[in-house]
Amino acid sequence: MAYCEELTSQMRTALHRRLGDEIDRLEEKRMMGGMCFMFRGNMVGGADRTKEGERRFMFRCGKGNEAAAALPGGQVMEMGGRVMSGLYFVDADRCDDALLGRWSDVALEFARSLPAK
After folding, report:
1. pTM: predicted TM-score of the whole model, two decimal places
2. pLDDT digit string (tens) for 15-66?
3. 16, 38 in Cβ contact below 8 A?
4. Which domains does the chain have, with CATH numbers?
5. What does the angle CA 91 – CA 97 – CA 99 come to, to the nearest 5 degrees?
6. Cα–Cα distance between 48 and 24 in angstroms, integer?
7. CA–CA dist 5, 10 (Å, integer)
8. Backbone angles phi, psi at 27, to 5 degrees
9. Are 18 and 108 in contact (CB under 8 A)?
10. How far is residue 61 from each of residues 52, 93, 102, measured CA to CA in Å?
11. What is the pLDDT of residue 1?
């Protein structure tokens, strides 16, 4: 995985639009080769580019989240042959601003349900 400034900027913008007064609770952290966004210390998601050049967003929506499962474009994350329930990759080239916003809403809702760290 590699850092991608364009995708990071898109995700940052989508999250900022949704946070309003809570924007000061959002942090950016380099993780897993890409950029991750944390809300009150809990991961919301991130953006990266694979070695093969695939540009993607990642969202943490929680296990069994029906809202995330119903959204188009998401694929349950798999790393090293292990399924990571509750985490989704979304192909950035097929994710317009409206869909990015919908995924961001679901991930932020999940992060808000968790205690602050």
Report:
1. 0.94
2. 999 999 999 999 999 987 789 999 999 999 999 999 899 999 999 999 999 9
3. no
4. 5-112 (3.90.1150)
5. 60
6. 23
7. 9
8. -120, 155
9. yes
10. 26, 21, 12
11. 63
